[in-house]
Amino acid sequence: MKKQKALIIIKPDAVQRGLSGTIVKRFEQVGLTIIGFKFQKADEKTVIAHYPSTDAWFEKVGKRTLNNCQVKGIDVKDTFKTDDAITIGKQVKQWLITYFQESPVLVMAVEGYEVIEIVRKLSGNTIPVLAAPGTIRGDFSHDSIDLANETCRPLRNVIHASDAVEDGEKEVALWFTPDELFSYVRCDEKIMFP
Length: 194
Ligand code: ATP
Ligand code: MG
Prior knowledge:
Layout: E1 4-10, H1 12-16, H2 20-30, E2 33-40, H3 44-50, H4 55-72, H5 77-80, H6 85-100, E3 105-112, H7 115-123, H8 136-140, H9 145-150, E4 159-161, H10 165-175, H11 189-192
Antiparallel strand pairs: 1-3, 1-4, 2-3
Bound molecules: adenosine-5'-triphosphate (ATP) and magnesium ion.
Adenosine-5'-triphosphate binds at residues 60-61, 64-65, 92, 96, 126, 145, 148-149, 154-155, 157, 160-161, 163.
């Protein structure tokens, strides 16, 4: 079995709230190996490349808003002037570009077995109110998707975490050059993986 890589970004809301160290600790204490770590201002091009520009991704994001509006009886056209999931997803991506440039972000590459499942489990649901207590988003964000959409901004949900093995590889390669990545063995691996 091979180790995999995932990218974690501590988003501007968490950096500005002084939560970086607390969040990094969650990934260290579960046993993942930090192989890349840097604090930087995200540029527009990198954010555009980071979040997919596929209809499938736009639709997934748009459907999140549509489902929420349906459950709550909110007229989606009041904010988005459309009920087309892909168009809504494209709008959210525009908002993400602004959000990611609000302050520096802390970008971290981690490695481990089944790392994608682990980072997504630690992160919790995208919508903070649905994120379980004990998860990073459940513990450190109380943003509302209704309020976010009403005020034309993305959910401020503390972190990004890769959500597929291929995405982990691609995202690490997007944010880090090879000489910014390190290979070493954590001492607890001897105990964990005898
Ligand atoms: P991330 O990729 O940042 O780890 P995620 O994988 O949980 O988050 P995605 O569907 O990839 O969720 O959405 C990327 C980000 O866009 C979310 O984390 C959130 O900040 C924002 N976002 C997604 N959908 C919506 C929405 N419908 N309304 C507002 N913001 C949204
Ligand atoms: Mg995502």
